[in-house]
Amino acid sequence: MFFIPPMPDNVELPDPPQVQSSNDIWSQVTKKWNADFSKYQKMYSEWFPDAPTDRRFLCTAEHVQTRSTFPLPSFLAPIAVPSQISPEGELLHWINSITFLSPPKQMRDGRIASWQVPSSILITRKGGANDHAILLCSCLLGLDYDAYVCKGRSPHCCARRQMTALAPLVDATT
Q1: CB 69, CB 62: distance < 8 Å
Q2: What's 7's DSSP letter?
Q3: Which of these, 37, 116, 140, 169, could form a disulfide with 120 (CB 3.0-4.6 Å)?
Q4: Mean pLDDT for the chain?
Q5: Residue 151 CA: distances (Å) to CA of 80, 129, 156
Q6: Nearest to 69 by CA among 25, 113, 118, 131
């Protein structure tokens, strides 16, 4: 048996360093992003006065369960998909079986109220169109596809054939 002798009385232990929480860091990033975006929005409206003035591009969102601030890309995580639903059609059918649910506020003003991580969507079996997009992208990442979630699309931004070149799974005939 081994006993550790007591520490001498004159030993001073330094205070642990103060670590900034990740929530504080992401809150600062959000404030800077919003300030920069409002400047950009003003410059953009000078060049294009007919453009919508109430646009917003989020860089972070609140985690539904922890209420902490997270960057939007962190909501994506590769999901191991069973081989039975790994073909694209089966995967889309399976994701479509999850209930689409949009809060009334989102339906009123058209702004996404909250974002869910894929695990929350799978547990509750419901979510908005944005949540379905995150789930689909996470499943495609799990199948080793090069997948992205794009928030918003203008029908005037690019032709369907350009979209097909950028996203090969998009059917150019529709």
Answers
A1: yes
A2: P
A3: 116
A4: 80
A5: 24, 11, 15
A6: 25
State which amino acid sits at residue 82.
Answer: P
What angle do the packed helices 129-142 and 88-96 form, to 10 degrees?
A: 150
Q: CA of 89: how far to CAs of 93, 96, 114, 136, 152, in Å?
A: 6, 10, 28, 12, 23
Tens of pLDDT, residues 101-147: 888 887 787 778 788 889 989 999 999 888 999 999 999 999 999 88
Cα–Cα dist 147/98, whole Å? 20
SS3 assignment, position 28 = helix
Q: What does the buried/exposed string (b/e) look like for 85-119 if buried means 16 or more CB atoms within 10 Å of the residue's CB?
A: beeeeebeebeeebeeeeeeebeeeeebeebbbbe
Whole-number Cα distances in Å, 71 to 80, 127, 142: 23, 19, 20
Q: Where are the domains of the chain?
A: 58-166
User: Per this entry, what is the length of the chain?
Assistant: 174
pTM score, two decimals?
0.68
The encoded tokens of residue 19 equal 């670590």
List the one residue out of 60, 76, 57 whose CA is nearest residue 68. 60
